[in-house]
Design brief:
The complex is a heterotrimer of chains A (252), B (496) and C (429). Chain A is globular. With 252 residues, chain A is of the alpha/beta class. Chain A has one domain: Rossmann fold (3-Layer(aba) Sandwich), CATH 3.40.50.300. Helices cover 38% and strands 29% of the residues of chain A. Chain B has 496 residues and is an alpha/beta fold. In chain B, strands 5, 6, 8, 10, 11, 13, 15, 16, 18, 20 and 22 form an 11-stranded mixed sheet that branches. In chain B, strands 4-3-7-9-12-14-17-19-21-23 form a 10-stranded mixed sheet. A two-stranded antiparallel sheet of chain B has the order 1-2. In chain B, strand 3 and strand 4 form a beta hairpin. The longest helix of chain B is centred in the C-terminal third of the chain and has 17 residues. Chain B is globular and about 70 Å long. With 429 residues, chain C is α/β, with parallel strands linked by helices. Chain C has 2 domains: 359 residues, no CATH class; 60 residues, no CATH class. In chain C, 21% of the residues lie in helices and 37% in strands. In chain C, strands 2-1-5-7-9-11-13-15-17-19 form a 10-stranded mixed sheet, with helices on one face. In chain C, strands 3-4-6-8-10-12-14-16-18 form a 9-stranded mixed sheet. Chain C is globular and about 70 Å long. Classes of the chains: A alpha/beta (252), B alpha/beta (496), C alpha/beta (429). Chains in contact: A-B, A-C, B-C. Chains A and B meet through helix 2, strand 6, strand 7, helix 3 and strand 8 of A and helix 10 and helix 11 of B. Strand 23 of chain B pairs antiparallel with strand 19 of chain C.
Chain lengths: 252, 496, 429
């Protein structure tokens, strides 16, 4: 479904991604871990199409299409979703209104009929329950005055509403207490299905106790140094990242 | 009261449709940029007592008014231009300005739209504000000021029935001299400030509104100002008097043809609200802002003040300021009556090389007087923006309350926003609340919306609209639509 | 002002600690105590302390009351750590065995311990550094020392009671490992007494990645007591710190809260409530340093002042050049119940980059006559109406407290202080 080949990307002239190769199949859950500044968030942002990230080489193919040629909103219409590490506050812009605009733009793009206000409201009320998001959040400004944990839950709520086929969760677990993490993880697990792929970028191994990945990748210094299953994450927790780097260095 | 933040009503942002396509805004030039070729009766540049006598004679004014003007002029000569505002512009040569320009008209002036110069009507139609349509659809009475003389006034009959006087001030001087004389200069005295003195000496026209006791004005009153003749300063004088228990909503909207030379605009607006009276004064200001390099554009040095003379009187100023090269404007309220209320809601946008120093003054004199200030400044491009506000709680103002919120939104890296709140409290029973935020519309917010499937243009409009919502909510409906459209048009190209 | 002339050999600690104590004395000799000429002490005159306690204001003394006189917080289920006159009381305490937690005195007598050394090390360049802190370093012999391990969520709060109405210097240190979650309650109580002393309390808190600390600081000293506090917090990435600072007791109380948001994604939430009457003087200086991107700070203080009480609130927020995407909001509301009560409030924002969101708000006022009238016209008595509105004013701070037992306890204690505020049961429901 998603194929990343030899992806190189820089930020402000500095190369961050130095040849990423990664293939993600439908319905798979991948966890990307790595030390600070290894390029984890950069990878998520490049896939979602954030400005300021320059792809210098390589390709990203999504459902057979060149993802990198699309604008961010087009990627959203095609089913790519990014849960932000730091969800942005947009005061005065109603959460529901923004989502409705997004959902209907996507439906229009896919040649489907736009949802009317009633249908839409019914749909989002259902979805809000999934992450125990209080109804009052629906009518507030986008993330306006939300606590850190509420923002992260709002991200997963938006994921539920936009029904992506590829969800990128950029450090969705950062800044969450254990109880909040459980709620968010339940929401994500409920959204897992055979068609939907999920890529989780995380700084903390703890997340993987709640959302079990099919694959774990170690990203360091702009490259995927090692891939494995859940056990790799446990090994990282015990031994840190240095041994992976040493192994990779020895292999060269 | 324990919550410093106001609880704003949250509702789904009304999706006001714009009929402007993205590719059209790409190089959005000033929409109202054209000059109507009307043969003007214009005085040569320069200012002296003879010029003032000429203006007064042209308008057939009584002796007292001429003397009042001359007194103001003599005072003006002793004053110096103020420089404390956070704006920069080359010195103004007051002798190079022409102080009178009137379109040629028939002896008695037009009595209906049919008699108005067709070119003038065409000008308004180009601007999308056809008088006739407004007459029929909006039910708004329009007193159109074209340059310095009013040439069309509508709905007079209907207003007359209600006892409301709504006419050019020159006409009011002739028809209701006692009323004018009673109030003129009582809110903004001739020597109040440099520009107010200049205005008092040379003002040519403006609107006069009087709402008698207990009357609720049956329609929104509206005036469209234009600046059209080359090198002509405009010095409007507007007066609105709401007698006991009266209510009026007055709308003022402006656009101006494109110009290369700076034009001075120094208006004076005086509002008087008696016991239980209410005046709502809304402005959409879109004068020519100059080009990208700061060439041309209007200098807008305005004195607007309301006197809440009566108990329980209320005045609201709502302004949307997107035009002018330099804006220097502080619509103020003198809260003299007990329990009187002053409000100021403002959105100011500066882009390119525009500079604005704007805000309000709330002078609390009466007991339990209350004021609310909500100021939203948006700076883009190389625009500079200052909020300057004074809240003055006098000794006798027991239980006075003020709530101030000033927010700035920066778009891009080369603009600036400054906040200068002045607070003087001489009464310990007063309650003051002040809130200020500065934030930046960034790639972040845009990208967030885009990643949710919303295009960049829609995202910018959505974000700015959200920021301005508290103020737009205060505007009369048709003005809110216009304000929205103005923001969308003005912002195009400011991001990305 | 006399120098600190104490024989350190009577105080616990190895040579390393003793050397640090000596440095602290030297520092104090140089800086002395702050005076009103210091901008940060402009409104708080500490000659009230030195004038009352005399030249040896710093000298620790045993207290006159015992721990049994102090009642518990009803319904609070917590680990209890008790200090009387600054000395740990093992028999009254109930320590958790799942974490590393020891009184400082034990660590000092057990020999060299690096973490406890750190606590004595002074940084004169730290914000709001002053002579009291130097005195604390020189003289403190006990306090709480704990390290909470990675991903540990402590099942009950740590309830630290400091009992005393004489002079004591207490030094606390708490470190939370990655992902740890803890609630710390510091409770200062004194009961009634004839004499007065100085509680000089320093608390250092370190939060590692993604850790979360909720901190209650309840100052309920006896009426004549002086209280000087310092809370210094350093936060690593994604960590959360919430403070509920309640000031009810003491004659003069001054606390400095210094928070450093050192790494990306950290957030802090400072809630403060002063309820003061008589001639009480309560002063909080808070300082939040936004030193990294994407950090959030929230600060809300409410003061309710009656009689001739004097409140001081100074909230300084510094946003460093690189601290982009900072989101900071501060609000300070002050309710003056009497004409002679006084508040000096000053928000200070220093912002060195333009990609930030900073908001601040201040209100100073009396109970609203219109609201009082409204309530009375609905049948409430003047007293009830005043109670209700005063309560509503403080409510925002109280409802932010997530521990119900403490919230109820503070509600009662706070409003019992105010005239005609005794019968609150019906109000509080």
């Amino acid at each position: 479904m998603l194929k990343i080949e030899n992806l190189h990307a820089s930020v402000a002239g500095k190369e961050i991604l130095k040849g990423i190769n990664l293939t993600i199949g439908a319905g798979e859950v991948h966890a990307i871990m790595g030390p600070n500044g290894s390029g984890k968030s950069t990878l998520a942002n490049v896939i979602a199409g954030r400005d300021g990230y320059e792809v210098t080489a390589g390709s990203v193919t999504y459902h057979g299409k060149d993802l990198l040629a699309m604008k961010p909103e087009e990627r959203a219409w095609e089913g790519v979703f990014l849960a932000f590490q730091y969800p942005v506050e947009i005061p005065g812009v109603n959460n529901t209104y923004m989502l409705k605009a997004g959902v209907n733009a996507k439906r229009k793009h896919q040649g489907e009929q736009e949802l009317d206000a009633m249908e839409f409201m019914q749909m989002i009320r259902e979805k809000a329950k999934l992450v125990e998001l209080d109804q009052s959040f629906l009518s507030r400004g986008v993330n306006e005055g939300f606590s850190g944990g509420e923002k992260k839950r709002n991200e997963i709520f938006q994921m539920a509403v936009l029904e992506p086929s590829l969800a990128l969760l950029d450090e969705t677990d950062s800044g969450l207490d254990i109880d909040a993490l459980r709620v968010v993880a339940q929401g994500v697990n409920a959204l897992r299905n055979a068609e939907r792929s999920i890529v989780m970028v995380t700084h903390y191994q703890r997340l993987l106790d709640y959302i079990e990945p099919d694959f774990v990748h170690v990203l360091a210094d702009g490259k995927i140094l090692k891939s494995g299953d859940k056990h790799l994450a446990m090994e990282l927790e015990e031994r840190g990242y240095d041994w992976v780097k040493d192994e990779a260095a020895a292999a060269v | 009261m324990s919550d410093v933040k106001p609880t704003t009503k949250q509702e789904i942002v009304s999706g006001i449709e714009s009929d402007i396509k993205p590719e059209e805004f790409a190089n959005q030039e000033y929409e109202a940029g054209f000059v109507t070729d009307i043969d003007a009766d214009t005085l040569p540049p320069g200012l002296n007592e003879d010029v003032i006598r000429h203006i007064s004679a042209k308008k057939d004014e009584p002796e007292w008014l001429l003397n009042w003007r001359l007194e103001a002029f003599r005072h003006w000569l002793t004053m110096t231009e103020p420089h404390w505002a956070h704006v920069q512009y080359p010195p103004i040569d007051f002798q190079s300005i022409s102080y009178y320009s009137a379109p040629k008209s028939k002896e008695d002036g037009p009595k209906s739209l049919d008699e108005v110069d067709p070119k003038l009507v065409e000008t308004y139609e180009k601007l999308g504000i056809p008088l006739r349509e407004q007459e029929m659809l909006a039910g708004v009475a329009v007193d159109a000021v074209f340059d310095s003389v009013s040439v069309a006034t509508t709905f007079k009959g209907k207003l007359k029935e209600a006892g409301v006087i709504f006419c050019p001030i020159s006409e009011a001087v002739r028809e209701y001299p006692e009323l004018v004389r009673q109030y003129l200069g009582t809110v903004v005295p001739t020597g109040d400030n440099f520009y107010a003195a200049l205005n008092s000496a040379v003002f040519t026209d403006g609107s006069f509104v009087y709402i008698p006791k207990g009357v609720r004005c049956p329609m929104e009153l509206s005036t469209y100002f234009r600046i059209n003749a080359m090198n002509t300063g405009q010095f409007e004088r507007t007066m609105i008097i709401a007698d006991e228990g009266a209510y009026v909503s007055y709308l003022e909207g402006c656009t101006a043809p494109q110009r290369d030379e700076n034009q001075l605009h120094a208006a004076v607006v005086e509002l008087v609200a008696m016991d239980d009276a209410q005046i709502k004064y809304s402005t959409v200001q879109n004068w020519y802002p100059g080009d990208e390099n700061g060439v041309g554009g209007i200098y807008n040095f305005v004195t607007k003040r309301a006197d809440c003379r009566g108990d329980r009187s209320k005045v609201s100023w709502t302004q949307v300021e997107t035009g002018s090269a330099i804006t220097w404007k502080y619509p103020s309220c003198v809260l003299r009556g007990d329990d009187s209320v002053g409000e100021f809601y403002s959105v100011a946008l500066t882009k390119m090389r525009q500079e604005a120093d704007t805000g309000t003054k709330m002078i609390h004199i009466g007991k339990r007087t209350k004021s609310t200030i909500v100021s939203k400044g948006i700076a883009a491009g190389h625009g500079n923006q200052s909020y300057r506000g004074l809240v003055n709680i006098g000794k006798g103002a027991d239980g006075a309350r003020n709530y101030t919120q000033c927010d700035s939104l920066l778009i891009g890296d080369s603009c600036g926003a400054h906040t200068f709140p002045y607070v003087v409290v001489k009464n310990q029973t007063a309650t003051m609340e002040h809130e200020a935020t500065t934030s930046k519309i960034g790639e972040d917010q845009l990208f967030y919306c885009q990643s949710r499937g919303i295009s960049e243009e829609d995202a910018v409009n959505m974000i700015v609209n959200g920021f301005c919502k508290d103020v737009f909510n205060e505007l009369p409906m048709e003005f809110a639509v216009e304000a929205n459209r103005l923001m969308e048009v003005s912002l195009e190209g400011a991001v990305g | 002002m006399s120098d600190l002339t104490l024989d350190f050999s009577t105080l616990p600690g190895d040579a390393g600690v003793q050397a640090l104590r000596q440095q602290a004395v030297d520092t104090f000799t140089r800086t002395g105590l702050p005076g009103r000429r210091d901008e940060d002490w402009k409104y708080t005159d500490i000659s009230r302390i030195t004038g009352t306690l005399g030249e040896t204001w710093w000298l620790p003394m045993p207290t006159e009351i015992s721990v049994t006189e102090i009642s518990d917080i009803e319904g609070l289920d917590a680990y209890r750590i008790v200090f009387v006159a600054g000395v740990f009381q093992p028999e009254s305490s109930n320590l958790p065995d799942t974490i590393q937690l020891k009184p400082l005195s034990a660590l000092l007598t057990e020999g060299a311990d690096e973490p406890s050394h750190c606590l004595f090390k002074l940084d004169e360049s730290a914000p709001l550094f002053n002579g009291f802190l130097a005195t604390n370093s020189a003289l403190a012999s006990d306090g709480l020392c704990a390290c909470i391990g990675k991903n540990i969520k402590l099942d009950r709060p740590l309830y630290v009671v400091h009992v005393g109405n004489n002079t004591a210097h207490v030094l606390n240190g708490l470190m939370l490992g990655q992902g740890a979650e803890v609630t710390l309650i510091e409770h200062f109580v004194g009961g009634d007494s004839a004499g007065a002393g100085l509680s000089n309390i320093a608390t250092y808190l370190r939060l590692q990645d993604n850790a979360s600390l909720t901190h209650y600081r309840l100052q309920m000293e006896s009426a004549k007591q002086f209280h000087i506090g310092r809370v210094e917090v350093k936060q690593a990435r994604d960590s959360r710190y919430t403070l509920h600072a309640v000031e009810l007791g003491g004659s003069l109380s001054r606390t400095d809260i210094v928070v450093k948001l050192a790494e990306a994604g950290a957030s802090c939430d400072l809630n403060g409530l002063f309820v003061a009457s008589g001639r009480q003087h309560i002063d909080h200086h808070t300082r939040i340093d936004h030193a990294a991107p994407h950090c959030t700070s929230r600060e809300q203080y409410r003061t309710v002042l009656d009689g001739r009480a004097h409140g001081v609130f100074n909230g300084k927020i510094v946003v460093a050049e690189g601290a982009v995407k900072t989101d900071s909001a501060q609000s300070n509301g002050n309710l003056l119940l009497s004409k002679n009560a006084e508040i000096d409030t000053k928000p200070e924002l220093e912002i060195y980059n333009d990609d930030v969101k900073c908001a601040h708000g201040v209100t100073v006022g009396q109970l609203d006559e219109n609201q009082l009238f409204y309530l009375k016209s609905r049948g409430l008595s003047e007293t009830e109406a005043r109670q209700l509105l005063t309560f509503a004013f403080a409510d925002e701070i109280l409802t932010a407290m997530d521990n119900n037992a403490i919230r109820r306890f503070i509600e009662k204690a706070a409003f019992a202080k105010l005239p005609n505020m005794t019968d609150l049961d019906g109000l509080l429901g």
